[in-house]
Specification:
Helices cover about 0% and strands about 40% of the residues. By secondary structure, it is an all-beta fold. The protein folds into two domains: about 20-75, no CATH class; about 95-390, Kelch-type beta propeller (Neuraminidase). The protein starts with about 30 loop residues before the first strand and ends with a strand.
């Protein structure tokens, strides 16, 4: 057979039409061109299949569907990131950091424990923090390669140090890299992040007479120097709130300010605007010490359990939308009769996880967060621990 010779030099501009590549003749379920990014609702019901391409004509970004489950599709960008997944959520492992045991605040812990976010969830001793304490604040770096631990409390004083530990490798010890403002037990108020900074809002300064604060501070999570900066204020002084976050905002639910709070405060990331009261929890005066979780892909925040004005713990799981965080709704119960939750859970893309006093690890689903289930045990009994994930 004679060889077919390709001669591109013989093709002139006149031989090519001005619109030779016309996406309109290709089914939009295969290649869709839109002025916005895909969402979880662009799914099998709209004809999309695994491998479908989405082109954002405004930004030039290209996305591919790797899961088209109804109302829960997964579109990844050119870096392989799930574009509808809040960067706060983890896909690999969760970590429990510090805390204190059943005998109270004198029994402080320095342990970092690790568990898989996919079943089975067995927990193991992973390393140590530099100072045994509780009520830490926490966030991660943009690459999800390390966790940051901020402030905290060990009697009789609050802490100001910021330490970091790597998510891979064991055993691991945290390293002191900077300072937070106010010598602050920052763990129980606003905690969120952008690609370049971690954000902490509110907290309590035990060392100066148990002063509840309202400042919002940022801390670099990419490069030194790691000194914190005061950038804005919460809507009120606040501690012991739940924390959740969307890609654009951080949320603090309930808390104590002083007095029991049931409002939902929202802070817009990457601004110096103050936080604003944007909604209410559905159970008034029952919100101090509630744990927070983030359903990033679904667009919801969760406020889980808490205490009422008499100090009685409740078992309610409340859910509120990020798009319009008005009144939350009661969507389930936390199983333990005594939950002992004080502001910390970690979030996978489908579930939240939390420890109780007796070292049980509990798991609840975002899709149907009714009764939680006991899925593992910690290596030591503790509460008031901080949790993070990657």
């Amino acid at each position: 057979m004679a060889e077919i010779e390709k001669t591109p030099d013989l093709i002139t501009g006149d031989d090519i039409g001005s619109n030779v590549i016309d996406h309109t003749i290709v089914s939009p379920s295969f290649i869709n061109v839109s002025g916005s990014d895909p969402t979880v609702a662009n799914d099998t019901g709209q004809g999309y299949v695994v491998g479908s391409i989405w082109v954002n004509s405004t930004s030039g970004e290209v996305f591919q569907a790797i899961d088209v489950t109804a109302e829960s599709s997964v579109w990844v960008n050119q870096e392989g990131d799930d574009v509808n997944n809040d960067p706060y959520n983890g896909t690999n492992y969760g970590f429990s950091i510090g805390g204190y045991g059943p005998t109270g605040g004198g029994d402080v812990k320095d342990v970092i424990e690790k568990f898989s976010l996919t079943s089975p969830h067995a927990m193991s001793d992973y390393g140590e923090v530099t100072t045994a304490a509780y009520e830490f604040g926490s966030f991660t770096d943009a690459a999800k390669s390390k966790g940051f631990i901020c402030g905290g409390y060990t009697a009789p004083d609050s802490l100001s140090e910021v330490t970091t530990f790597n998510f891979t490798g064991s055993p691991i010890a945290s390293t002191d890299i900077g300072e937070v403002l106010n010598q602050n037990a920052a763990g129980f108020a606003l905690q969120c992040q952008t690609p370049s900074v971690g954000i902490l809002g509110g907290g309590i300064h035990y060392a100066s007479g148990d002063v509840i604060i309202d400042n919002i501070q940022t801390l670099s999570n990419g490069s030194s120097p790691f000194t914190a900066a005061d950038v804005a204020e919460m809507a009120t002084t606040i501690r012991d709130s739940s924390c959740s976050e969307s890609p654009t905002h951080g949320y603090a639910g309930g808390g104590y300010g002083p007095g029991y709070l049931n409002n939902i405060q929202r802070y817009q990331k990457a601004t110096t605007d103050n936080a604003a009261d944007v909604g209410e929890l559905s159970i008034a005066n029952a919100s101090q010490g509630g744990g927070g979780a983030t359903d990033g892909r679904g667009g919801f925040g969760f406020h889980i359990t808490g205490q009422n004005t008499s100090g009685t713990e409740i078992d309610t799981i409340q859910k509120f939308p990020f798009s319009s965080p008005t009144t939350s709704s009661d969507v389930g119960e936390f199983t333990p009769s005594s939950s002992n939750l004080t502001g910390h859970q970690c979030s996978s893309t489908t579930h939240f996880f939390s420890l109780d006093y007796t070292a049980n690890l509990w798991k609840g689903a975002y899709a149907s967060p009714s009764t939680t289930s006991d899925v593992a045990e910690a290596t030591t009994d503790h509460d008031n621990n901080t949790m993070t994930q990657y």
